[in-house]
Amino acid sequence: MAGIRNSDGPQNTPYGYGYAPAVEGEPEYFGSPGSPGAPGYGPTPSYDDNPGHTVAFSVGDTPDAQAGADQDHVATYRAGQTTGPPSGPRLPWKQLISGIVLRPAATFLQMRDYQVWAPALLITFLYGLLAVFGFDAAREDVLDSTISTSIPWMISTAVAVILCGLMLGAVTNSLARQFGGDGAWAPTIGLAMLITSLTDAPRLLFAVFLGGANSFVQVLGWLTWLACAALLTSMVAKSHDLPWPKALGAASIQLIALLVLFKLPVI
User: DSSP string spanning 61-92?
Assistant: First the structure.
């Protein structure tokens, strides 16, 4: 029947729109877009949503609104991606260490896109050399043994502490990504190693002289563990653009492991 949509598709019509020419006496909107008086009369417009050039956008959005939303999305910085510029220049290792202690939030924000392997591995190694003094039995064995025996023991302990820090930092990064974070893995792991080593260093310094079972050393250990929890949460929140509850959840396994491995054995 003339005046209805051609079921054979655009290839059977001279107009390419799938409509038959308008029949005299019928409403004009049954005519093709190219017929006089029909909607769209005039030269065929070049739309991007022609077959093969479809552009999709949400219901209620216009192409202009969608373009504005895309610009806002591109302008939004997402940590760990190359589309966003770093928050500042790389900090030297001295400023990095002092920044973690004195101005942690600004330091984590500035260093979330930079790898910190060199200071992280070096400081964690030095921390591992002292870690053996946090346990009374190991401390007595090291102090009573000769230097040729104690040095290999301390070095092996330092290497084990580095491997432990790498694994725990990787777990924290993976959990942060599962919770919706978008930070890079290398800065997260390196900063986590620095935080755990720096915060527990005061306890180990006193443990060298007083022993790990000393009551003051134990109280100091709990305080430094709380400081580690606060710094790890802040670091994950800044590095992965997460609210602090999710950041604390991402760091929870590492905090529990640090408590079990280094704190609870001396209680």
Answer: --HHHHHHHHHHHHHS--TTSTTS--SSPPPP
Q: Is 103 helix (H, G, I), strand (E, B) or coil?
A: coil
Q: What are phi and psi of 25, to 5 degrees?
A: 95, -15
| Residue matched to tokens 């999710």 | 246
- What single string gives the DSSP state of each residue in 22-73? PPTTS-GGGS-TTSTTSTT-SSPP--TTSTT------TT--HHHHHHHHHHH
Give Cβ neighbours of residue 158 (< 8 Å, ≥ 6 apart).
Answer: 124, 125, 126, 127, 128, 129, 131
Point out which residues pair with 5 in neighbouring strands: 19
Query: Following DSSP, what letter does each residue of 112-130 receive, concatenated?
Result: TTS--HHHHHHHHHHHHHH
pTM (predicted TM-score): 0.67
Answer whether 113's CB lies under 8 Å from 86's CB. yes
Say which residues have a Cβ less than 8 Å from residue 214's Cβ, sequence separation at least 6: 206, 207
In the block, residue with structure tokens 């930079």: 114
* CA 144 – CA 198 distance, rounded (Å): 27
* Cβ 23 vs Cβ 2: under 8 Å: yes
Q: What is the DSSP letter of 19?
A: B
Write the pLDDT tens digit of every residue in 156-198. Answer: 999 999 999 999 999 999 999 999 999 999 999 999 999 999 9
